[in-house]
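Task: sequence design from structure.
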């Protein structure tokens, strides 16, 4: 599901986006997809929940590094909901973690760590089922995305700080400063992104 719908964008703007002959449905939908991708890269969280079933080689330690739950890779998705962990024996017998064992697993930005016990050593013998991403997009992120949509589509809503003085064209790179958390040149949007980026950078314990 997109971060916002065409109808939500038109209702949010209450102005120029209501002009369907200028701002086509396809244009708004494409912008929603683009903004969602940008927000996910900046924040480090999928704005729609995605489920994964993955198999790992247990190495006899207390740690597993997750393939799709890595804040330093392209797919940077949080928070994570751990559904199950199953140990597969050499005779293909499967033994699932009990509820107590699951609750004993600590989830960090890129790995699972058992507080007690280890992940049994073997080849593709650990099956992990988990979901990452928001089930419901937080209201403040959606509001920021809607504001970004209007800012990008309606010329009068573009801050002067992102206009290249030479020819009046939009140059978003002029305000991209990850160290300071400025991506859109609009403080209300950037403040939301900074807050969620900071939250998702911290280890999540479940």
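Answer:
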């Amino acid at each position: 599901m997109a971060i916002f719908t065409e109808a939500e964008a038109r209702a949010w703007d209450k102005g120029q986006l209501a002009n369907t002959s200028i701002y086509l449905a396809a244009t708004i939908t494409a912008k929603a997809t683009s903004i969602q991708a940008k927000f996910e890269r900046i924040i480090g969280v999928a704005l729609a929940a995605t489920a994964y079933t993955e198999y790992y080689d247990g190495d006899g330690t207390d740690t597993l590094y997750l393939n799709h739950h890595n804040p330093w890779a392209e797919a940077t998705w949080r928070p994570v909901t751990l559904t199950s962990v199953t140990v597969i024996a050499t005779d293909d017998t499967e033994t699932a973690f009990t509820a107590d064992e699951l609750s004993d697993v600590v989830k960090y930005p890129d790995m699972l760590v058992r507080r007690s016990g280890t992940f049994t050593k073997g080849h593709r013998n650990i099956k992990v089922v988990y979901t990452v991403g928001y089930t419901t997009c937080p209201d403040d992120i959606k509001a920021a995305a809607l504001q970004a949509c209007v800012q990008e589509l309606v010329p009068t809503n573009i801050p002067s700080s992102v206009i290249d003085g030479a020819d009046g064209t939009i140059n978003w790179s002029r305000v991209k400063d990850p160290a300071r958390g400025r991506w859109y040149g609009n403080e209300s949007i950037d403040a939301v992104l900074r807050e969620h980026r900071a939250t998702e950078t911290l280890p999540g314990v479940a």
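The first strand starts at residue 50 and ends at 56.
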